[in-house]
Amino acid sequence: MSERSCPDCAVRMERTNVTAEGIGDLYIETERDSGILDRLGVEYQTPLSASLCPECELTRLYADFSE
């Protein structure tokens, strides 16, 4: 995962975990019908990672695209 900066505070965000009881990893699910997500290279299930701002506590989810 690349380094992320908070859009509100401009400080480095820290990697964190987001969990839901009884659920494993978080993913986005996409359809593979030549839409925008297909052109971006998003798989059927793409894992998500979370970043947290230590200043304002903003938490953002990012799709982990393979490079």
Key words describing this protein structure:
67 residues; single chain; four-stranded antiparallel β-sheet; 4 strands; Small CPxCG-related zinc finger protein; mainly beta; 7% helix; 28% strand
Q: Can I get a quick summary?
A:
By secondary structure, the chain is mainly beta. It has one domain (14-63).
Structure description:
This is Small CPxCG-related zinc finger protein. With 67 residues, the protein is mainly beta. It is built from one helix and four strands, in the order E-E-H-E-E. It has one helix at residues 36-40; strands spanning 14-16, 27-29, 45-52, 59-63. Strands 1, 2, 3 and 4 form a four-stranded antiparallel β-sheet that branches. It is flat and about 40 Å long. The mean pLDDT is 80.
Write the layout of secondary structure elements.
Elements: E1 14-16, E2 27-29, H1 36-40, E3 45-52, E4 59-63
Antiparallel strand pairs: 1-3, 2-3, 3-4
Order of helices and strands: EEHEE
The helix/strand class is mainly beta
Mean pLDDT: 80
**How many beta-strand elements?**
4
- Proportion of residues in extended strands: 25-35%
| Number of spatially distinct domains | 1
What's the tally of helices? Answer: 1
What's the helical proportion of residues?
under 10%
Note poorly predicted spans.
none
- Radius of gyration from CA coordinates: 14 Å
The 3D shape can be described as: flat
Taking the sheet with the most strands, its summary is:
4 strands, antiparallel
